[in-house]
Automatic annotation (TrEMBL):
Domain of life of the source: Bacteria
Name of the protein in its database record: GNAT family N-acetyltransferase
Keywords: Acyltransferase, Transferase
MF term (GO), any: acyltransferase activity
Entries under PROSITE patterns matching the protein: GNAT
InterPro entries for this protein: Acyl_CoA_acyltransferase, GNAT_dom, Ribosomal_N-acetyltransferase
Catalytic activity, EC: 2.3.-.-
Organism: Streptacidiphilus cavernicola
Keyword Acyltransferase: yes
Domain N-acetyltransferase residues, every copy: 44-195
Length: 223
């Protein structure tokens, strides 16, 4: 079983935690990333809806894929400042890691906007965890970091992801394009303002370690 009482890191973003009644988002330490490798290994996409193209290809197997995923997380953890940051969280359910939930801010001090990215163990999809993960990271963004707006994108045929955004209170915000398997595909864009989030705000989500993380992200105060 995975303990959540690990020795605190000297690096504040790795100490941030978000707890809901169903799951926890824990700062993605190397220990937790290693625990996720078996899930990365089995997460090959074999049927639609096809996922995004990214350095951690979901279309091919082998250790190179796992190395690429680790390098991507390490690089993202190291690129943090007022102009850009990406917080990586391991999703933990009943003591076991089951996925990743990221929160990304670009020029956050100026605009107060964030976007999210996530993936989940194929064996636990369809049980509402995607919605719970999103609500947890939105609570961190708005209540913990003072965000003004959150954005999300999903391919038009990714019904599950689009439903998560709609259920969290996002509203449609146009379209965009990205590649998957090297081919262009249309995305739905979603937008959630602070006012819209407040309408759906939950009172059963706890934040840990956020105040110590603010200076690392270039956030002087929470609105």
């Amino acid at each position: 079983m995975l303990t959540t009482a690990a020795t605190p890191s000297a690096y504040p973003p790795l100490n941030v935690r978000v707890h809901t009644p169903r799951l926890s988002l824990l700062g993605a330490t190397d220990e937790l990333l290693n625990r996720l490798i078996p899930i990365v290994r089995k997460g090959i996409a074999t049927e639609p809806p096809w996922p995004f193209d990214d350095p951690m290809s979901l279309y091919q197997d082998g250790p190179e894929r796992e190395w690429a995923w680790l390098r991507g997380v390490w690089a993202g953890r190291g690129r943090v400042g007022a102009g850009f940051w990406r917080l990586y969280f391991v999703v933990v359910v009943d003591g076991e890691p089951v996925g990743i939930q990221d929160l990304i801010g670009t020029d956050f001090a100026a605009f107060g906007t964030v976007c999210t990215f996530s993936w989940l163990d194929p064996d636990v999809r369809g049980a509402g965890l995607g919605k719970e993960m999103r609500q947890a990271v939105l609570h961190l963004a708005f209540a913990g970091l003072g965000a003004r707006e959150a954005n999300s994108e999903a391919f038009v045929d990714n019904t599950a992801s689009n439903r998560v955004s709609a259920a969290a209170g996002y509203t449609p915000n146009g379209a965009n394009w990205a590649t998957r398997r090297g081919e262009p595909a249309e995305l739905n864009r979603w937008r959630l303002t602070r006012e819209q989030w407040i309408e759906h705000r939950r009172d059963d989500i706890d934040l840990v370690g956020v105040d110590d993380c603010l200076p690392v992200l270039g956030i002087e105060s929470v609105r």
